[in-house]
Amino acid sequence: MRFDNVFQLGVKELRGLVRDPMLLVLIVYSFTLAIYAGAKALPETLNRAAIAIVDEDRSPVSSRIDLAFTPPYFSEPHLISQYEMDRRMDAGLDTFALNIPPDFQRDLLARKSPTIQLNIDATRISQAFNGGGYVEQIVSAEVAEFLARTRNAQTAPIELTLRARFNPELKKAWFGAIDEVITSITMLSIILTGAALIREREHGTIEHLLVMPVTPLEIMVSKVWSMGLVVLAASALSIVFVVKGWLAVTIDGSVALFLLGAALQLFATTSMGIFLATVAGSMPQFGLLLMMTLLPLQTLSGSMTPRESMPQFVQDIMLAAPNTHFVMLAQAILFRGAGLEAVWPQLLALAVIGSAFFAIALRRFRTFLA
Predict the structure, then answer these.
(1) Fewest CB within 10 A of the end CB: N or C in the chain?
(2) CATH 3.40.1710.10 spans which residues of the chain?
(3) Do the beta carbons of residue 362 and residue 273 sit within 8 Å?
(4) CATH of span 51-148
(5) H-run or E-run covering 288
(6) CA pair distance 112, 110, nearest whole angstrom
(7) pLDDT in tens, 23-47
């Protein structure tokens, strides 16, 4: 293998990428807006949910209920009339509308068990599932304290002191940003290498390469290093400017060690992209194969759901996937500040898996060229 051939072929791949505006837009989007959107949309708990209150009682207990809905779970309640309730919910202005009936406090003191109506906009799925329980707990607590004439200040038999080393405020957006970077690295590396090979076949330039004094190994290595370099550079810039800068996520671990693991991950996933491109006959077929490959890699690798909650045979099978080890490595470094002494097994596993994927893809690529 001549390294000057590999370098020149890699430069050719970079020039072809620059001339493809759609792929450039995909790269920029995946490492900027997609990460921001994934981080901000991740929390499944309530976050400033819009609530309106129809207070027909105007009593001390109804005022307590009005003041109980505070950020960050709810926005400041809007006091509206009963005639405005349906109109505002139809317009999407409120997710929850609480209707406190007249004589509510009087019926409470008379032990008549009055009823409060809660209307929920169920089209806002994540808030509707969790919000009803939150509203019920808040109203029940305020009513119970009003009837007891005192604030509930029970002393627990033990005192539990919590210390969160990473993300002391337990902001779910921090975890979402890191997970989105991991997902983008895997997705883009497969897409770019596969699209580069399919683009050459559709444009007829693959035949030009076959008549040149280059080998299949040189062609494949050039695609691996060029597309891997693009994704690695984009991920490094995203970590610095989007995750740490824009989203203000504190990362105490070594970014250089994370990029080393990302490089080994790219070695495996770019080989996977070439293999899928040799199997697919066109770009639409490659897209379908990509969906069948990415979904298991993302959902079963441990980034969305802990591996410990999966069946044992699924955990054993996914050890053959590079994503599993990359997720373990990335979370250990970026979340817990782990060093090389803690993540070297994952680095070794990525190197072995990447070599196996590269050998399989090279054999398939030679058959494809023949």
Answers:
(1) C
(2) 51-148
(3) no
(4) 3.40.1710.10
(5) helix 283-299
(6) 6
(7) 899 999 999 998 888 887 755 567 7
